[in-house]
Amino acid sequence: MATLRLTRVTPYTALLPMALVAALGYLGAGLWTFYISLTGSRTFPSGHFIGLAQYHRLFDNERWMLSLHNLAVYGVLFVLACLVIGFLLAVVIDQNAMWKMRGEGVFRTIFLYPYAMSFVATGLVWQWLLTPGDGIDGIDGSLRALGFHDLRFDWIVSQDFAIHTVVIATVWQMSGLVMALMLAGLRGVDPEIWKAARLDGIPAWRVYAQIILPMLWPTIATVLLLLATAVAKLYDAVVAMTQGGPGIASEVPAKFIMDHLFLRSNVGLASAG
Questions:
Q1: How does pLDDT run across 229-257, given as a tens digit for each residue?
Q2: Rounded to an integer, what distance in angstroms lies between the CA atom of residue 157 and that of residue 161?
Q3: Is the C-alpha dihedral spanning 220, 222, 223, 228 positive or negative?
Q4: 62-265: what fold?
Q5: Residues 231, 74: contact at Cβ < 8 Å?
Q6: Least buried of 39, 83, 148, 220, by fewest C-beta within 10 Å?
Q7: Are the C-beta atoms of residues 184 and 219 closer than 8 Å to each other?
Q8: What is d(CA 238, CA 244) in angstroms, rounded to the nearest whole number?
Q9: How confident is the model at residue 44 (pLDDT cuts 50, 70, 90)?
Q10: Among 130, 228, 214, 137, residue whose Cα is nearest residue 178
């Protein structure tokens, strides 16, 4: 009986150090941040309690509200684009394998390669591609010389479209990961489903839309969780591409918090964010 109890307790004992680290590192840090947000801390944390005043200042701040709007726009476009492009790439590779064509490994490597890059590197590359006079706009200039005078691609310096350039860059980087996860899900589909669909003469697009996609819901839920985490953490790509500009047109919450934490010496307001 004692041996049986020891066997049951041992796994929990092994997990205890990690549980303590998680509790102290995440829960403890979260509670400490909330406490600091209730104080008038500036350069250093202080015990001067001011209640919810920092939160009132935060939501009265035009820059913070714009950052939330930008994050919402970015999040919707980024998640939808990654899901659609990643799924279509997975379907292409899956169909390629289904018809016994070569090159699947090459395609997987090409599509997944951008995910190996850091967001800073991705941001710098796309900053060059989208800067007026360079990259894509340089090609546009050649086309304008041929008579296409209205052709412009200057989104990165446009207040209305700057955040969309960040979407383009990060979708390019993350779509490969979505493709890999979706492809793994597609490979778990019973081949007999496809055989039955062919015998019944059902078009491939209907099989994917009405049968395969519902079966992939656990994979889609995992993808959504990863993409939502990437949205909440958006910082590196914005700093590398636009520095939050032009003006504050592409400001996001993470950049707002970091700026107030390290550049504006307002620890209390940064903690409220």
A1: 999 999 998 998 888 878 888 899 999 88
A2: 8
A3: positive
A4: MetI-like fold (1.10.3720)
A5: yes
A6: 148
A7: yes
A8: 6
A9: confident
A10: 228
